[in-house]
Amino acid sequence: MFRQILYTQWKWSGLGVAAATLVAFALPILSVQSAGITEPTWLDARVLLPEMEAWSRVYPALALAIGLLAGTMAWTHDHRGKHVYALTLPLARWHYVLLRFGAGLAMLVVPIAALWLGGVLASSMAVIPPGLQTYPHALALRFAVAVVLAFSIFFAISAGTARTAGYILAIVGGLLVTQLLLGLSGSSTNVLGPIFDRMVTLPGPFEIFAGRWMLIDV
Amino acid sequence: MSNAIETRGLHHRLGKNFEIRELSLSVPSGSIYGFLGPNGSGKTTTVRLLLGLLRYTRGSVTVLGRPIPGDAPRVLARTGYVPERPHLYSALSVAEAIRYHAAFHNSWDARRADELAQRFHLDGSVRISRLSKGETGKLMMLLAIAQSPDLLVLDEPTDGLDPVVRRDVLTALLDYVSQRDATVFISSHLVHELERICDWVGVMDNGRLVAEMPMQTFKNGIKRLRVADAPSLVSDTPFVLLSREPGDGLGGGEVWVVRGWQDPMKQYFDGVGAALREVVDLDLEEGFVELLRTFRAPSG
């Protein structure tokens, strides 16, 4: 049963996940190569760290993209058939949702493993200036948590009705429009800033996306 | 005789203008029950209520002896369903769709599935999105039958199919039923089709069950009578008078459409001073139309 669910999910989003896997594998290697360090000197640390920081913004973006892809694609075909097929299978609804969620998680193992492998490979290739260290395992772990979090959120939103998605979009859109109107009226009130800060700083749920995503750090 | 499907006082509102009202139907085990009704009468909504896809606001539903929606998974494990519109995943091939469906049904009959795939000339490698309407209908029937169900719920299974495909699909259905003594609940507005295969009939109109009876009773009991010298007021008839209209002029008199007719009832006309000129059998479609006409006529 699970194998068949996983198979259908792979069929629907496999191409996207495969592409994301390639990117996840290549990212750490590209980040190290772009720094172009050939000699391990103290001075090179000042070149390498900003370079790593620049690349560190790509990892959470990739995690979000993978979560979005896998989360939404898990339900696309059921939505098309108005869930009639899923609802007429001899399973409790929670069981079916759990199978789809589990299949999505299983698929995510591939890009996470690719990033870990790429990180380990990049670390072994890199010329590390004194005082710096590589963190391929920590980076992969952070990536895994972020991907699973993004997947869970998008999976839950996609599982709902169009009305639920509409409510969420309306709230986000409403906040953006409010901020825009305040800006146009010359007010210095910041509506989005505090909300954003609450979300991305501990104990906010999205702190994982805002932390340090460094393959090489002090 | 126990009932494979039983609803009592079922109520469900769909939007602002349509509701299923006080629906009480009984589908005897082992029967082929034709669920008739014009488009928009509530057939598909009823089917969805029976399978737990929709929630009712009042009443009760029991399918194969178990309550719906409470025991829906167990009931669905023994129920083959062909929906009105194809619901399969279009990105899968025929073979993949069969494997997928089989994985959820413990009673899956792989040999029967292979036989039906051959009989229906279904190519396993073709994607579902590329199947014709007829092929999709055949595939859905294959999936429903190969899970070896005790109950088949078919919602307009042959609607839009050409006569050859329709025959293939119905033959496969009847073969299965004859071997397994399964119950079939088949919803359709194609009256002639049901007339050939059903032994029970239920008629829906505007969210209500208008009639439910054995097919033979329905077909035999509805007659068109040509009556001369009919009294202006009619009461205490031994049959149900569905309609009365002036005759076409040749024979004069009136044309009555009645239900529950039996030959000894001819004597009734002598008693009221009228003359019964002719008794005409109506086929199911004519009976169905007359029934709906009576049902929809304003009372009084």
Main sheet specs of chain B = 6 strands, mixed
Question: Could you state the order of secondary-structure elements of chain A as H and E?
Answer: HHHHHEHHHHE
Oligomer: heterodimer
Which structural class should the secondary elements of chain A be placed in?
A: mainly alpha
Tally of alpha and pi helices of chain B: 10
How many beta-strand elements of chain A?
2
- What structural category do the secondary elements of chain B indicate? alpha/beta
- The strand count of chain B comes to 15
| Terminal residue distance of chain B | 38 Å
Computed Rg of chain B:
22 Å
- Give the mean pLDDT of chain B: 88
- β-sheet strand percentage of chain B: 25-35%
Largest sheet of chain A: 2 strands, antiparallel
Q: Kindly estimate the percentage of residues of chain A that lie in beta strands according to DSSP.
A: under 5%
Report helical residue fraction of chain A: over 70%
Rough outline of chain B: elongated
